[in-house]
Amino acid sequence: MKVAVVGSGVSGLAATWLLNEHSDHEVHLYEADNRPGSHANTVGFPSKEGVNVDSGSVRNIF
């Protein structure tokens, strides 16, 4: 059976991994953005040290 997982957020990545590891299904992962992870992301924080910051799944609009 062919399975399409739409979205590569945490749930989509987990579903894809589990189906690949524990089933004989042909699994395809589709993502509209240019990177996986959805809202979870690592971004560079502008500082002298060049610190990377992991953002959670909820973004602050301020």
TrEMBL record:
Top-level taxon of origin: Eukaryota
An example molecular function term from Gene Ontology annotations: oxidoreductase activity
One matching Pfam family: NAD_binding_8
Transmembrane segment boundaries: none
Residue ranges the record marks as coiled coil: none
Protein name: Uncharacterized protein
Organism of this sequence: Lentinula guzmanii
